[in-house]
Amino acid sequence: MKKISSNILKMAVVAIALTATPAVYGMDDTFAVPVGGPVDLTYAAEKALPAVVHIKYVQNSKITTVEVEDPFSDFFSDPFGFFGNPGGGEKRKQKVQTPKREASGSGVIISADGYIVTNNHVVEGADELTVTLNDNREFNARIIGTDKTTDLALIKIDGKDLPTLPIGDSEKLKVGEWVIAVGNPFNLNNTVTAGIVSAKARSLYANGVESFIQTDAAINAGNSGGALVNTQGELVGINAMLYSQTGSYSGYGFAIPTTIMNKVVDDLKKYGTVQRAVLSIMGMDLHNYIDQQKAKGNEVDLGSLDGIYVSKVEDGGAAAEAGIVEGDVIVGIDGKKITKMAELNEFLASKRPGDKVRISFLHEKSKKEKTVTLKNTQGSTELVKSADLDVLGANFKEISDAQKKDLEISYGLEIIKINDGVMKKAGLTKGFIIQKVNEEPVKTLDDLQNIVKEASTSKEPVLYIQGIYPTGKKKYFAVDLNEK
Hints:
Layout: E1 2-4, E2 24-25, E3 31-32, H1 42-48, E4 52-59, E5 63-69, E6 91-97, E7 101-109, E8 115-118, H2 120-123, E9 128-132, E10 138-140, E11 142-147, E12 152-156, E13 178-183, E14 191-202, E15 212-215, E16 227-230, E17 235-243, E18 252-257, H3 258-271, E19 281-285, H4 286-295, E20 308-313, H5 318-321, E21 329-333, E22 336-337, H6 341-348, E23 356-363, E24 366-373, E25 394-398, H7 401-407, E26 413-418, H8 422-426, E27 433-437, E28 440-441, H9 445-456, E29 462-468, E30 474-480
Parallel strand pairs: 1-17
Antiparallel strand pairs: 2-3, 4-7, 4-9, 5-6, 7-8, 8-12, 9-10, 11-12, 13-14, 13-16, 14-15, 15-18, 16-17, 17-18, 19-20, 20-21, 21-22, 21-23, 23-24, 25-26, 26-27, 27-28, 27-29, 29-30
């Protein structure tokens, strides 16, 4: 569970008594909530518990090479720098064994054939994932796709007729509505806590895209990836983090709404990466901007007290094409009133590059409306596909022990064949040994694949490659993945 700590916020602990009342059912046997009366949450718990799973994470022990300072070299150090080494000891490479890491979290089964939604931070870097169902059945899981920007991940187990949790519309949630949080805090399996929706569209600046549902249902370590469920027994959010001064629950938890989750899951299934549509602006909640200016003694009148203050507009982006400039205020999109940056993030998270939207904004207090085509982070309207190693047009192998000894290096991938492709166009040749790409060490083909995949969907799809020739000459290349 991610934790956000603050020494400013003072949280009061309020004891809330729940009075049980018999469940009320409609004519079609659907569950109905009595308006203004006590709430029975047993129906929601019965629907949710079978579909919420325990996820065990294992990262195996590994041998890795690190640079350490040789303590004995201090006896021969040059404190005045006459020989180019002022006061420092020499560094040497040493192999160390990392410890085995184990952790646990939660997940939600969303399809009978075994697709499970959880948080990215629950599965990131895992060598093994074990999923345990409510009935104690165990499955090995594989990662289908992850998205750091929203902290969501999609994993899969091989099963049939698995229990699922219906997906509700988080947009319809109301502040004050009862919800339950279901998960496995502190490895206490199948735990249910209850509370209300305390706020919507919260931004905590923990992820790139966020519009959290805030709840006072207790959420603790191990609840990550678990379900936030409404009284109808529908999934409305994926529990993601807590706000705490102590590291444990002390008032509020936060969940990723299904409006964001649905799009991320669909994209990971279809494209292997999330199709992110952007306006290409930087901004902040208007009321925060006004408060900042007042603190400086400045009076501000932008024609509204709510909206998104635009602090920067990128050239060539959707907002620029709409005529939006720095100092304008976005107040609506597709007819929906926008009062906070988190609301805009949530709306855009449901869109793809190429989609058209109508933006309402204030320019010098005058309201304007423009229809624009959303673009991807690379500035085009095309869907972004994560690249495979094939795009490089080369074959690779891990270097041998003899090569490591001859060149005095500890790792690298040798180019053993090069065909037409972006690497050849950048000037790389057969025999060159790649050691780092985008400042990340490259020891295996998986390392290279992961870097290529991440770079291909980034704002700047470029590989900065460092390496060495068999002669010992070091070289640096820039490979544009969009080069045709």
